[in-house]
Structure formats: structure tokens, C-alpha cells
Amino acid sequence: MTEQFRSVPVMDIDFTNTTMDVFLNETIHPCLTQAQKCFIVTANPEIVMATRHNARFKETVQSADHVLPDGIGIINAAKMQGTPIDERICGVDVMHHLLAHAAENGYSVFFIGAQEASNKKAVEKAREKYPGLIVAGRSHGYADLYDEAFVRTVVEAKPDIILVALGMMKQEGWIRDHIDRFDKGVFMGVGGSFDVLSGTAKRAPSIWIRFQLEWLYRLIRQPKRIIRVVKAGQFMLLHVPIIHKIGKVIGYNKSRSRKKR
Ligand code: UDP
């Protein structure tokens, strides 16, 4: 984690505490101008919970230059700890900003991840939405992304921005394992964002987001996400005041903290 911004730790993960505008103007734009490298993780409660159970993943997240608070659960947890975070910074919004900024300034983007049809369509949509966008390359996420020939193709394309949409853990793992091969680049895991960009999946309507029910919207559309919702629920048992109290009454928090020790 770079020391540029104050950070707020939530369960051993140091979140960058700033606003979207400041983050973009003071970190991302200079990084691109100076052809440096930057690894960004956008973390929600599921990611934080995953770091508790997977030491290697925890190290990976901790090795990022910036962990951005993506998810209202992180904002609530930080507030409850008495160390509020300035602003929620959503990965999908950062991605759109990166695409717009790249198109305006001639930076190239490599798109890795999602199903072939979704990846292809996402790139088409990005070109349509951001005229002039330079696409350094693209690959769906079900090929062997550790294959040397593939990695060399990405490295030799010298992309300025590398968006990796493989779902949490896999995408951060790919970045961790390959970032050293590159001389420059803004690397970010973007989860299901290509599916949203391509229209394969829909982002929750703003009313759901306003009422902090984005997770419920996604669960209704993809019932397979129930495990993730359970993980986010566990996070809330540990962090959201009223739910935390219920957790205490049912003995959840006590047993978790004993386990932790
Ligand atoms: N994905 C992929 N390769 C894989 C596993 C997943 O390309 O081996 C893609 C998947 O098609 C989807 C995205 O990764 O586009 C994961 O989306 P999800 O919404 O689950 O992301 P998360 O919530 O984990 O950030």
C-alpha cells in the first residue's frame, strides 16, 4: 500500500481513504502519465472475509498499491470503528473513468476475462461509448491465462491499463503472478463489470443502490450467489452495530474472536 493517502484498516486490510476525484487525479492520472505501475483492488465485504480464510489471498490484497472501499458494508464497518472513510469508490465507476480517460488521452487498454461473447461485446461497447479508445488486446477468461504465449502477448502489447474480469481472488491472483513482467500499467480486477458493460448482466437500478440493496438485486438474478451473501452476512455480524449486537447475543462474535486468536 502506498503511503500517499491516509488509510483505514478494516480487518487487517488497509483501505485507501480518499474521494474518487482525488484518487483519480492524484494517483491514477500521474501513474499513467509517468508510465508507472499500480495494482488496485476494489474490495467489498466478501473479499475482506475471503482474506480471513486464505492467507495467500490476504497477502495479495495487502500487496496492492490501493485497496478501494467498494461496498457499503466497508463504509459502515469503518464508521462503526470510529474511523470513517471519506467515500465509497466503486470498481465499476473507476473502470468507466479509466476507459474515458484512456480514450481522451491515447492510453491503451487490455481486456481479460468473462465469457467470449461477453468479453467481445464489452470491448465493442467500450469502443462505442468511448470513441478513440485504443484496445491493446482482449481475451475471454476461460482460456489458459497462465500460458506463456498468452502472457507474452499481453506483455508485448505494452498496455497502459489492464482490466481483469475473472471474479474475486482469481483476478487478483493473476495480477499478483504477472505484474512483475510489465514495465508499466494500471492493473485492476473488475469482477463482473464486463458482463455489465456488454449487457449480459445488469447493474442494480439506482433505487436498489440507494437503499443499499444491490446485493439483494444480484442475489435475485443469480441465486448461486447465496454463499457470497452468507459471507457478507458474517461480515455484518462482526461490524454493523445492530447486527453486531444480535451476533453478540447469539454468541457469534465471541466464538469468531476466540477462533481468531
Ligand atoms: N470468469 C472468468 N473466468 C473464470 C471465472 C470467472 O472469466 O475462470 C468471469 C465470469 O465470466 C464473470 C466474472 O469472471 O464475467 C465474475 O463475475 P462476478 O460477478 O462473479 O465477480 P465478483 O463478484 O467475484 O467480483
UniProtKB/TrEMBL annotation:
This protein's record includes keyword Glycosyltransferase = yes
Q: Does the keyword Electron transport apply?
A: no
CDD domains per UniProt: Glyco_transf_WecG_TagA (cd06533)
Q: Could you tell me the superkingdom of the organism this chain comes from?
A: Bacteria
UniProt entry keywords in alphabetical sequence = Glycosyltransferase, Transferase
Q: Which GO terms describe its molecular function?
A: hexosyltransferase activity
Tell me where the signal peptide lies: none
Q: State the NCBIfam families in the record.
A: wecG_tagA_cpsF
Q: What is this protein called?
A: WecB/TagA/CpsF family glycosyltransferase
Organism, by scientific name, is Salinicoccus hispanicus
